[in-house]
Amino acid sequence: MRHTSGSENTPSDGSLSSPAGGPENARISGAENAPEGGGPCPGEAIKALPVGDNALLLECADGEASAALHAELLRRRRAGELPAVREVVPAARTVLLDGVDDPDRLAALVAGWEIPPLDSRPAAVVELPVHYDGADLAEVAKAWGVRPEEVAEIHSAVEYRVAFCGFAPGFGYLTGLPARYAVPRRATPRTAVPAGSVALAGPYTGVYPRSSPGGWQLIGRTDEVLWDPGREPAALLAPGTRVRFLPRRAEAG
Amino acid sequence: MSERTVAVLRAGAPTTVQDLGRFGQAHLGVPRSGALDPFAARLVNRLVGNPEEAAVLETTVDGCALRSTAEVTAAVGGAPCPVRVDGRPAAWGAAVRVPAGAVLEVGAAVRGLRSYVAFAGGVAVDPVLGSRSTDLLSGLGPPPLRDGAVLPLGHPAPGGPGPCYGAPPWPGPPDELVLRIRLGPRTDWFTASALRTLTTSAYRVSPAGNRIGLRTEGPALERAHEGELPSEGMVLGAVQVPPDGLPVVFLADHPTTGGYPVIGVVLEDDLAAAAQAVPGTPVRFLARSPRARMPSARVRAPTSRRP
Fold first, then answer.
1. Which of A164, A170, A182, B61 lies most in the core, judged by the most C-beta atoms within 10 Å?
2. Mind listing the pLDDT tens digit for each residue in A139-153?
3. Closest by alpha carbon to A25, among B230, B283, B286?
4. Is the Cβ pair A165, B27 closer than 8 Å?
5. Under an 8 A CB cutoff, do B27 and A51 touch?
6. ipTM of the complex
7. Are B113 and B207 in contact (CB under 8 A)?
8. Quick check: B274 contacting A, CB < 8 Å?
9. Any B CB within 8 A of A170 CB
10. How far off is chain A from B236, nearest CA to CA, in Å?
11. What top-level class would CATH report for the domain B177-288?
12. Chain A hits for B23, Cβ within 8 Å
């Protein structure tokens, strides 16, 4: 099956959720990388919400728990332990299972699982060289209370994880930046953001796979091709993929 | 064997290539796409002897005109419309022989919005990620038809079923669009009165709809709590309620994730009628009890199973 090509259950670091207190979606895996993950999560802690007749939305307490659930779903799917599901779509703190024959039965099944924490073993990391020269770099530096040159250092010091994709094919929502560096979207979105732009919004980092309108704050750009439907896999960044940004000088291609 | 192509003389606004969709990649942000009225797409394929997943053309309101380089069997279905071959009236909802060099003219829809045009052998543009569908949200698949474009046609499978005659034509969409919805997943983001409003008020189909969603006009739905919902996966038929409070029913090119709450999900069987409802059509949302199966209001085209 073509489905799992880009989304193998990449073992991820076990970064803990950020302390409570931030805005709701800043809780999502916004904390510093921790050496190990939390304990196993009982499936009963997962809320199963109805979505039409053939889908199920599994909601977790936070992004860390939904990432662990997503990894477990893919593991069980590969092991042939999951009833047929057409789409497995992780998001901020949910996993959508679409194209399911009997959602009620599947919900009951998941409730009986013990979800292990995200694997903390070292795994392959996608490295993206970045020129930190984005149009909003000064604004981001100001929000962070640092000099513009320090943005690259802070942003590239962290290992990221693709929490989910959306907006456009191959656009990943990357978590890993500490919660204190969350920035708002631009008040006025740009009508055209160049392909390869590295940008921030809320707790997320994203890289625009192609030129498109966009409201995120641009801090840099990469020459890597994020999305190519003729390539296998088409998406460089799939849910679960770990990512590092490597600062490049503007002149050094 | 001569090359089998059709040249686009009049593209229509817009006409796209569609099959049954692009599946299994929603987690990468890839919409499902596919014919908005899959019953009609399957039926026209059956009429020309194609497997039901062959790619067809989906017109929007004003049809299209094409010239074939080779003799080809075609069928026009979905929204009823006048069909002409080299200026002579031809049958709608039936297999039609188009001689080499002849012009197949698909007229403006008389009822409904979207007509479907199948050619024996199918429209053979290169598939992208397993589908030939045009995806208007993310630009995957072939671009919408343009005047002067040339589309390759496939060869009918030898020993295939051959054209089918006498299939039941579809009379067009009802005067009122009744959409059965199953509540959830985010019904609790709305007030009880919003729920009553949704299921008892008269909505109308807005002219602002497209392949991404059917937009409605009517009373706004009141939220029980404000704030932003963290992005979550979206399904076909999801009734998403943006800040203006007016329900949007997601169709095939819908985004794979979204942050506006979904009050309910329309039954997949009712979405083909939604895709054929002209602006101004009254819409009624009918809440139904969880997963109680009801007979479909729409006549399904018989599906052909192939090994």
1. A164
2. 999 999 999 999 999
3. B230
4. yes
5. no
6. 0.91
7. no
8. no
9. yes
10. 9
11. mainly beta
12. 86-87, 99
